[in-house]
């Protein structure tokens, strides 16, 4: 990579102008010692990253090229099968339906649900003080801090067709939400559960929008929507994109839908994370599961790169 | 400089703490002369198979420890409970065994023996324990068909814990309302459908419930598609060849279509994550007319004392009948009635540090005294031992019925490692039909999947 630290000095120029003296540089020995010291300090972190991120990722990559299984002869003597697992995945209709369901899940609950609802709540509460704000924030955050297993259990009871609270409230007994509308149920659940993060992030971001800018816009006759579009959004664009990146990736890899529907009925809520669990751990096909995990990793990378480019594009 | 010193100090503390934690994580290797054994079952106090969990905790452990003490051995036993679906239990067990861990004595489903043996997770008992495994006196009391469940490639890998059979349960109160007899015994599938239609017109919410779909895993195979397949004269594997989209399979799937497409069954009960449990509950509440299940249903579900869906009036209200063939004489081997049998196995974990003592514990749980104790207080089941069965089944009409009428016409699943994958494909075929797919299409899709599982069309009977 080309280095462009400073332009070449003009001949005859003084070594340094008075008052513009460069900071003292380390001698090469001192620099070397500094690097060594930095290396020592970074070593534990690098080792941990290698042990818990790089090695498992490479291992999954390798497993995806074998017919490794949880039981049977392929558990004891796995064979190298090259790209067979990937080809099997591509030829598997369940893989494609899972990919489509995952897309719905991410767009519905993360991009539209959590971001939309989180921002709306943060916007409505931005100038408020007092008990209402605390109660609303408390309720939203409660959904976020409770363990997944517990809230999933509560929602299964809430959405149950016989005696479920939602049916009782709506007066429509017999509606099997998790069976008849599995993805809608999961999207609503995940929106409810994850909105707190967005709300807090946008709450903090909105606090940084200078009131004078909004005041000026108001005086210039801008409508509420125009204030949002032309003042607020440009100001918190980075926050929005960072949030989108984080919650998209979380949602993409979220396993919670399994706790609500176990991927059913008949695969109608089998998002990719659940698909991997079902084929790898329930079905014992670890090699195939690893191959699908590799595909998920690649999709995650593409999503991450897309958001990061968007984030940098107008910074 | 002070900062650097402090940083170095922090690193040193973290490193030391890490090493300390790592040291804590290492096994102490057992202390002194005490032998510690663990026994794992998919049973838990107050939950799944609660009676079995109670029996191990309250009787087996203290009695075995006392017996060992009398022999001069200091042995302590711990129970490792689970209360999960069989598929989850299998996954946990597989991961335990794969990582060289797990309890010393473990319960597995009979059908897992092949794939566990191939993976090296379980070993022939004689190899692990020595000659005493083959010379165990209990073998003489166990019928050969039941012994065969614990064998793979001609070697004994475990002791059989028991066997079972499938019947049609029905609610006599609902039958009376529909004008059906209390001693109902259908002789063909049509008679089941006719009874279902009468139940429906008398207002029963779910006239017939036959397991379908993947949500309930192997239960769909054992209490659903396999008995129907047998009733239509088919077997999942015969003479080394797997059955594909055969006429018996199409017939079996056709019955699913008549039940779930014809409004006689509730397909949602098949699809829900806890659908099987819900169907049990609904049967106990008098909402299901006919239910195909194993004797576990009688012992562990509607058992008035220990069931998960207790029926106080079980003995008066619940009737049972043999599963008929599609038509008389059209079942496998020309039978009029059919059933499927399975059974659990109990074996010694090859990772055990004390395999001989583990086998002693294993054999102890299958001693006549233990089996008699376990089956007290209404917890009767068909044990593997004929000497014990004679005594304990005496006061149990259902189990006597299964033992005398059902077991002679029963069939077993192929004891091969590929079977569990084939079973899943069959479950998917039933799910498709319950969801509206035509039986012929579901059978064709099954054949396609089967080819992938068993290594091509050459291994499938035409």
Q: What is the alpha-carbon Rg of chain A in Å?
A: 26 Å
| Stretches with pLDDT under 50, minimum 5 residues of chain A | 1-20
Which structural class do the helices and strands of chain B define? alpha/beta
For the secondary structure, the number of strands of chain A is 0
The string of secondary-structure elements of chain A, in order, is HHHHHHHHHHHHHH
> How many beta-strand runs of chain B?
17
Rounded mean pLDDT of chain A is: 86
Indicate the percent of residues in helices of chain B: 40-55%
Q: Give the termini separation of chain B.
A: 82 Å
Could you walk me through the main structural features you see in this protein, from its secondary elements to its overall organization?
The complex is a heterodimer of chains A (315) and B (462). Chain A is mostly helical and 315 residues long. Chain A has helices spanning 28-63, 73-76, 84-91, 93-124, 131-145, 148-159, 165-170, 177-180, 182-206, 211-219, 224-252, 256-261, 272-282, 286-313. The longest helix of chain A is centred in the first third of the chain and has 36 residues, at 28-63. Chain A is globular. Chain B is α/β, with parallel strands linked by helices and 462 residues long. Chain B has 21 helices and 17 strands. Chain B has helices spanning 2-25, 50-70, 86-98, 113-119, 125-129, 131-134, 144-148, 172-177, 189-201, 218-231, 247-261, 267-271, 275-284, 295-301, 314-317, 355-365, 368-374, 386-392, 397-406, 419-434, 439-454; strands at residues 35-41, 75-81, 105-109, 151-152, 155-156, 159-160, 166-171, 206-209, 237-238, 241-243, 288-294, 318-321, 323-324, 337-341, 344-348, 410-412, 460-461. In chain B, the strands form 5 sheets. In chain B, strands 2-1-3-15-6 form a 5-stranded mixed sheet, with helices on one face. In chain B, strand 1 (35-41), helix 2 (50-70) and strand 2 (75-81) form a beta-alpha-beta unit. In chain B, helix 10 (218-231) crosses helix 20 (419-434), helix 11 packs across helix 20 (419-434) and helix 20 packs antiparallel against helix 21. Chain B is globular, with a radius of gyration of 25 Å. Mean pLDDT of chain B is 89; it is low at 1-31. The chains are: A mainly alpha (315), B alpha/beta (462). Chain A binds chain B through residues 41, 44, 69-73, 75-76, 161, 176, 178-179, 260-262, 264-266, 281-284, and chain B through 7, 11, 14-15, 87, 91, 94-95, 98, 112, 114-116, 118-121, 213-215, 268, 271-273, 417-418, 420-421, 424, 431-432, 435.
């Amino acid at each position: 990579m080309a280095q462009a630290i400073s332009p070449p000095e003009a001949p005859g120029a003084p070594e340094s102008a008075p008052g513009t003296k460069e900071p003292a540089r380390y001698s090469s020995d001192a620099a070397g010692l500094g690097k060594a010291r930095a290396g020592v300090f970074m070593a534990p972190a690098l080792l941990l990253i290698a042990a818990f991120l790089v090695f498992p990722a490479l291992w999954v990559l390798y497993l995806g090229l074998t017919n490794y299984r949880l039981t049977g002869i392929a558990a004891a003597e796995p064979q190298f099968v090259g790209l067979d697992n990937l080809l099997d995945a591509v030829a598997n209709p369940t893989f494609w339906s899972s990919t489509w369901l995952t897309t719905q899940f991410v767009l519905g609950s993360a991009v539209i649900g959590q971001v939309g609802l989180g921002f709306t709540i943060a916007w409505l509460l931005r100038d408020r003080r007092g008990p209402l704000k605390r109660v609303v924030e408390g309720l939203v955050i409660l959904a976020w801090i409770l363990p997944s297993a517990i809230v999933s259990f509560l929602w299964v009871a809430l959405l149950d067709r016989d005696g479920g609270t939602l049916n009782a409230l709506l007066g429509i007994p017999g509606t099997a939400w998790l069976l008849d509308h599995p993805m809608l149920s999961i999207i609503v659940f995940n929106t409810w559960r994850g909105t707190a993060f967005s709300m807090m992030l946008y709450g903090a971001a909105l606090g940084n929008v200078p009131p004078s800018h909004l005041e000026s816009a108001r005086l210039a006759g801008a409508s509420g929507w125009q204030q949002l579009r032309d003042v607020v959004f440009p100001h918190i664009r980075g926050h929005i994109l960072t949030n989108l990146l984080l919650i998209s990736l979380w949602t993409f890899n979220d396993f919670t839908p399994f706790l609500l529907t176990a991927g059913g009925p008949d695969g109608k809520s089998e998002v990719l994370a659940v698909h991997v669990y079902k084929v790898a751990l329930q079905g014992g096909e670890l090699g195939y599961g690893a191959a699908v995990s590799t595909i998920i990793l690649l999709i995650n990378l593409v999503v991450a790169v897309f958001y990061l480019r968007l984030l940098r594009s107008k910074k | 400089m002070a900062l650097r010193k402090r940083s170095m100090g922090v690193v040193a503390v973290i490193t030391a703490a890490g090493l300390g934690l790592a040291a804590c994580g290492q096994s102490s290797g057992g202390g002194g002369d005490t032998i510690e054994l663990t026994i794992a079952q998919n049973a838990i106090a107050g939950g799944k198979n609660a009676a079995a969990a109670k029996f191990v905790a309250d009787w087996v452990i203290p009695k075995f420890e006392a017996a060992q003490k009398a022999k001069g051995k200091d042995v302590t036993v711990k129970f490792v409970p689970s209360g999960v679906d069989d598929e989850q239990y299998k996954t946990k067990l597989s991961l335990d065994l794969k990582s060289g861990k797990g309890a010393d004595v473990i319960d597995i489903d009979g059908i897992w023996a092949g794939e566990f043996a191939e993976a090296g997770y379980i070993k022939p008992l004689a190899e692990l324990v020595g000659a005493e495994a083959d010379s165990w006196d209990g073998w003489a009391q166990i019928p050969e068909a039941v012994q065969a469940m614990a064998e793979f490639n001609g070697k004994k890998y475990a002791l059989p814990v028991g066997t079972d059979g499938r019947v049609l349960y029905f609610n006599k109160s609902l039958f009376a309302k529909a004008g059906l007899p209390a001693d109902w015994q259908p002789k063909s599938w049509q008679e089941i459908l006719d009874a279902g239609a009468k139940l429906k017109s008398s207002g029963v919410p779910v006239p017939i419930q036959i397991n379908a779909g993947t949500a309930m895993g192997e239960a769909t195979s054992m209490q659903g598609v396999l008995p129907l397949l047998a009733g239509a004269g088919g077997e999942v594997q015969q003479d080394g060849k797997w059955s594909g989209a055969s006429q018996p399979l199409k017939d079996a799937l056709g019955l699913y279509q008549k039940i779930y497409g014809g409004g006689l069954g509730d397909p949602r009960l098949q699809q829900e994550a806890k659908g099987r449990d819900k169907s049990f509950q609904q049967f106990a509440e008098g909402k299901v007319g006919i239910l195909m299940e194993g004797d576990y249903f009688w012992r562990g579900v509607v058992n008035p004392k220990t069931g998960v869906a207790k029926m106080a009036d079980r003995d008066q209200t619940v009737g049972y009948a043999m599963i008929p063939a599609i038509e008389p004489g059209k079942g496998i081997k020309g039978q009029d009635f059919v059933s499927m049998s399975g059974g659990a196995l109990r074996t010694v974990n090859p990772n055990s540090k004390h395999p001989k003592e583990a086998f002693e514990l294993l054999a102890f749980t299958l001693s006549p005294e233990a089996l008699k104790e376990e089956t007290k207080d209404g917890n009767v089941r068909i044990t593997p031992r004929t000497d014990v069965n004679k005594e304990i089944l005496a006061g149990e009409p259902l189990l006597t019925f299964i033992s005398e009428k059902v077991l002679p016409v029963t069939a077993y699943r192929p004891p091969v490692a590929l079977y569990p994958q084939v079973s899943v494909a069959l479950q998917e075929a039933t799910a498709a039909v319950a969801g509206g797919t035509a039986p012929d299409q579901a059978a064709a899709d099954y054949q396609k999947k089967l080819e992938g599982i068993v290594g091509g069309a050459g291994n499938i009977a035409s």
